[in-house]
Amino acid sequence: MTETRWLSPEEREAWLALVSIMFTLPGSIESQLQAEADLSLAEYLVLAMLSEAPDRRRRMSDLAAATNTSQSRLSRIVARLERDGMVVRAGGEQDKRVVLAEITDRGLERVEQVAPGHVEHVRRTVIDRLTPVQVQQLALIGRMVDEAAADLTARGLASDQP
């Protein structure tokens, strides 16, 4: 059995700061979107990702990856957005087994209305509190941690030894 590599005081502080961010930031952003736009963060992300996509559509599997959500959760989110007339689903032109989600004109109008307030909240909460170098570091750190977590999840590893 390998001896536990305990966190140093600096590593513990960094870890606890990250845990705090994981719990407080989503709630802050969700509250802003709910109050100003009656949208969840997940719904907003789906609309935003579709609005930025070529032809305003994406494969559902790609959309799930882009929004960091499971296929089943994405399906429920898209169903809600469909009911509100902001998204439609269709089969792929080349392969009918592929399901595409496409933002409607109503959905595009909605994301364009919501985006300024959302971006302002993100700026106030995160971006404007950091230097440009820290923003770059945050992006790099986020990608590295996300890739490691996704890799471990994909391999089904509850615990991993270095």
Automatic annotation (TrEMBL):
Organism: Kocuria aegyptia
Pfam families per UniProt: MarR_2 (PF12802)
Record-linked InterPro entries: HTH_MarR-typ (IPR000835), MarR/SlyA-like (IPR039422), WH-like_DNA-bd_sf (IPR036388), WH_DNA-bd_sf (IPR036390)
Residue ranges annotated for the HTH marR-type domain, each copy included: 11-147
Source species taxonomy: Bacteria, Bacillati, Actinomycetota, Actinomycetes, Micrococcales
The protein's name in its UniProt record: MarR family transcriptional regulator
